[in-house]
Amino acid sequence: MTQAKPPQKPTASRRAVIAAGLGAAGAGALNLPREAPAQEKTPADAGTSSLTFSEVPHGLDNTHAVAPGHNLQILLRWGDAIVDGAPAWNVAAQSGAAQALQFGYDNDFIAFKPLPEGSNSSTHGLLCVNHESARNQLMFPGFTSRKVNDQTKELMDVEMAAHGHTIVEVELKDGLWAVVAKSGYNRRITASTEMDIAGPAMGHARMMTRDDPKGVLALGTLGNCAGGETPWGTVLTGEENFHYYFGGDPRSTKEAANHLLYGLGNDLFHGWHLHYARFSVAQEPHEPNRFGWVVEIDPYDPKARPAKRTALGRLKHEGAGCVLNADGRVVVYLGDDEYFQHVYKFVSRGTVDRSDRKRNWGLLDDGTLFAARFNDDQSVTWLPLVWGTGPLTAANGFANQADVLIDTRRAAALLGATAMDRPEDIEVNRVTNTVFVALTKNARRGDEKVDAANPRAKNRWGHIMEMVPADGDHAAATARWQILLLAGDPAEPGTKAQYHSGVSAAGWLTNPDNFTVDPKGRVWISTDGSNDFGFADGLWATDVVGQGRALTKAFFRCPIGGELTGPTFTPDGTTLFCSVQHPGDDGKSNFVDPVTRWPDFKEGVPPRPSLIAIRAQDGKPIG
Ligand code: FEO
Ligand code: CA
Ligand code: CA
After folding, report:
1. Which terminus of the chain has a smaller tally of CB atoms within 10 A, N or C?
2. Is the CB of residue 318 below 6 angstroms from any atom belonging to ligand 1?
3. Is 287 inside a domain boundary?
4. Residue 542 is assigned to a structural domain of this protein
5. How far apart are the CA of 351 and the centre of ligand 3, in A?
6. Coil, strand, or helix at residue 621?
7. How far does residue 528's CA lie from ligand 3's centre (Å)?
8. pLDDT tens, position by position, 417-431
C-alpha cells in the first residue's frame, strides 16, 4: 500500500506529446476540451441532482484528480505481493513464477465480497479483481515499442502470469485499507490455471485438444474484462479479447469461419504460439473454442477450481450483470464488445438456494440464452438460442446445443438480434429494477444502418441504454428500452449529444464502458476513449430517476493514457474501489520514455496499473 506521490514534471518531450494530443482533437474540429474552472459547480443543477460533490474538470495530466473532499489510496499496484511467499517486485528481475504470486497487470473488474461470508461488512472482505491484458512495451526494461515475436519465453511467462484474476483479503483500519498478507484466501488465477469446462459445450468434440482429449479441463482464462456477482456469493469474469493470444492463420483450419468471426489471425501483441503449441491455431484449432466464456470463481473457497459456464454463450464477453428474479431464478445480462454485435441474457432453469453457496455451483449450466432485438417501437424481443428451433438446425450447421453456444455470434445474427454499437458493461440497478447497457462507440455505422436503438451514424461517442423488464420480470420474453443519454459534447451540435440540460463543461463524457450502481441507485459510469478527444478517461455519476436524470457529473480523472474500469462500492457506499488500467499508454509511450510514471513517480519504474480506494474525508457515503 502506498499513498500517491506528487506528480512528476513532464519532460520536455512528454509535454510536446500532451500538447500534440490536444492539437489532434482540435484539428478534427470536434470536442476540443473547453476551459473548465477547477472544482466546477454548475448553478443549473443546484437542487436538481442528488449528487453533492464538486466536479473535476476535464483535463489531461500525468496524475489523477478526484473530487475535493475525498482521500485516494493506491491500494494495489501491478507486482505487489498477493500470495504468501511472493517475492518483492523487482522490475529488473521479473519471472513468471514471481508474477504468479503478485498482483497482475491491467486490473479491471472488481468485486468486494464481505467477510465473514454472508455479512454486510464494509470494512473487511475479499477483493476479486480481473487482469485483462499485458503491455510489454510498458512492462519490460529496454522495450521501446510493443514487440511481438522477439520476446523471450521468460517474458511471455511473465505476461501469462500477469493475466487472469486476483483474490485478496483486505481490511479497513483508521480510514486506510490494508492487505491481509498471510490470508489463506489470497490467490492468483492466471492464463495457466486449471479450470473446468461446464455446461452444454463440456466434452464436445470441438472443445477437445491434444492436452485435453475429453474437452473438460481448460488451462487459464484470458482477456478478463468486466464481470458480475451471483446472488450466492461467487464472482463471474468475462473473457473478452481472447483472439489476441492465438498465432497462425485460421483459414487453413476446419474452424476457419468461426475463428475469423471472432477476430483470430491478428496476433499483434504476444507471440505465445512460438513457445506454446496450444496458442497456435494451426496446431490446435480447437483451443480458441475454450475461450470467450464467462468463468465462475468461488472466492470464499480457495481450493475451488473455476468453471467456464458455456451455457452463457461464447462472445467477447464484457459484463455479466446478475439479478435474482422474483421467481427465484437467476438472470445474467451479457454484452459482446464488438462493432455490430449483440446483447444477451441467460435465464436459469433452476432456482437459487439461499441456504448454501455450494448448492448453486452449476446453476448456470442449465437454462436458456437469449439475444436481444431492439425494435423501433422501443420494445425488446428476447430471442432464444435453442438448438432445433428456427434457423438453429443442421441446415445451418448446428448439430446440437454445443454448436449453438460455440458459435453464439452466428446463431444470434441468424435469429435477427440487433447489431449494436459495441455493447460493453451491463448492470442491473436493484433500486430501479432496470438494466443499464453501455454502448461504447461505433464509428463504422453508416447512415444506412442507423436504427432507433443505435440512432447515430459514425457514432464516435457511444450511448447508454436502459432496459425495463416487462412487469419487472427479468425472465420475461419482452422488455422496453429507452436511451439514458447520447454521449459526446452537447455544446457541439454535430454530436447530437443528449443529456440533462444542466450538464456542465466537466459533466459531459464520451465512450461509456463500465458501470456500478451506488446504494441509492445512482449510476456511476467509467469511460474508455476520452484521450481521443483530448482529455482523460474517468468516472462520472448520475441520477437515473427524478429531476437529475442524465445530469452526469465528473468525479474522478485518470492519469494520461489510463482507463478507469471495475468501479464498485462497499455495501454501505463509503469506499469506492476502482481500477486504473494501462496508465501512460497513450499509444506512443514505452518503458524507456513513459509519458507518466504514475503512481510511483520513480525514475526507472514504469507506470503501474493500480487498484485505488476512494473515501470521503468525513467517512460518509460517497456522492
Ligand atoms: Fe475490456 Fe470492452 O473493454
Ligand atoms: Ca471494459
Ligand atoms: Ca475497455
Report:
1. N
2. yes
3. no
4. yes
5. 33
6. coil
7. 5
8. 999 999 999 999 999
Distance from the alpha carbon of residue 123 to the mean position of ligand 3, in angstroms: 29
- Ligand nearest the Cα of residue 425 is 2
Q: Ligand 2 centroid vs 224 CA: distance in angstroms?
A: 9
Evaluate: CB of 45 within 6 angstroms of ligand 1: no
Residues 6+ apart with CB under 8 A from 518: 524, 541, 569, 573, 621, 622, 623
**Cβ atoms within 10 A of the Cβ of 447, count?**
8
Condensed to tens digits (0 to 9), the pLDDT of residues 104-127 reads 999 999 999 999 999 999 999 999
User: Which grid coordinates belong to 36?
Assistant: 473548465
Report the C-alpha gap between 57 and 556 in whole angstroms: 9
CA atoms within 13 A on the CB side of 355: 1
- Closest ligand 1 atom number to CA of residue 528: 3
Index of the ligand 1 atom closest to the CA of residue 316: 2
Give the span between the Cα atoms of 295 and 309, in whole angstroms.
6
What pLDDT digit, counting tens, does each position of 273-298 carry? 999 999 999 999 999 999 999 999 99
| CB distance 424 to ligand 1 below 6 Å | yes
The verdict on residue 358 lying in a domain is yes
The one-character DSSP state at 606 is P
Residue 158 lies in a domain: no
Q: What's the domain range around 379?
A: 12-23+37-144+177-240+292-304+314-616
Of the candidates 411, 471, 481, which has an alpha carbon nearest to the alpha carbon of residue 451?
481
What's the CA gap between 49 and 541, in Å, rounded? 10
Q: Which ligand is nearest to the CA of 335?
A: 1
Q: Which ligand is nearest to the CA of 240?
A: 1
Domain tally, the chain: 1
Q: From CA 180, how far away is CA 188, in angstroms rounded?
A: 15
For Cα atoms 527, 56, 490, give the angle at the middle one, nearest 5 degrees. 60
